[in-house]
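Below is a filled-in request sheet from our internal design queue. Each sheet records the structural input a requester submitted and the sequence that came back. We keep these sheets so that new team members can see what a complete request looks like end to end.

REQUESTER: design group, bay 2
PRIORITY: normal
MODE: inverse folding
CHAIN LENGTH: 198
BACKBONE (tokenized):
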């Protein structure tokens, strides 16, 4: 059984959503985390090396970081097709968008939030506006990052965009707004919200 190390209203919330989509057996283990305002503590029960969430344990196998967890879970529970497997023509795009999320998009948002200029030519990421242009161009090809196929990559991107819908970190875009609502409008998202509330 999967154990999700979780703190409410954090990045780990979207993995309740993914686990619901996968119809996987799981349990939630609530942990404390350090917060931006200086409150909170690292929970010794949390296997993440920096005491962050998400992290999962699958019968002793520890996986942490969002993109790695998404890939691990979709390979582990392939029944619902939430992640193309090796040999599937969509696998390359799936891996690319998972890596893009953690390697480009999140650093871009953090840089903008902290008012840091992106060091062009030396960083692996770009400004938020440039990253969002690439995402919008991709979504112009279909309702999801893989075209007609909904995947765990959409859970990472769509929940982030829904969270930032009213934030100055992201320019308004009808394409992104519609996409985010399409992702969080899924029944598994509502089941996850209920499950998170206990």
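RETURNED SEQUENCE:
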């Amino acid at each position: 059984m999967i154990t999700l190390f979780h703190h409410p209203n954090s990045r780990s919330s979207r993995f309740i959503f993914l686990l619901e989509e996968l119809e996987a057996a799981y349990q939630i283990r609530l942990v404390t985390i350090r917060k931006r305002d200086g409150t909170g503590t690292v929970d010794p029960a949390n296997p993440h090396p920096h005491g962050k969430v998400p992290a999962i344990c699958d019968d002793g196998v520890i996986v942490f970081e969002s993109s790695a967890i998404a890939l691990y879970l979709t390979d582990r529970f392939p029944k619902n097709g939430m992640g193309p497997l090796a040999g599937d023509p969509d696998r390359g795009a799936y891996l690319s968008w998972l890596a893009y999320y953690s390697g480009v998009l999140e650093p871009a948002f953090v840089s903008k939030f902290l008012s840091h200029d992106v060091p062009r030519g030396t960083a692996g990421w770009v400004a938020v506006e440039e990253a969002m242009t690439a995402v919008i161009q991709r979504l112009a090809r279909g309702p999801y990052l893989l075209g007609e196929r909904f995947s765990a990559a959409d859970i990472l991107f769509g929940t982030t965009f829904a969270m930032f819908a009213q934030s100055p970190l992201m320019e308004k875009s009808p394409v992104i707004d519609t996409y985010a609502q399409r992702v969080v409008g899924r029944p598994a998202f509502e089941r996850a919200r209920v499950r998170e509330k206990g």
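SHEET NOTES:
- Strands lie at 2-6, 26-30, 55-58, 61-64.
- The two ends are 19 Å apart (CA to CA).
FILED BY: M.R.
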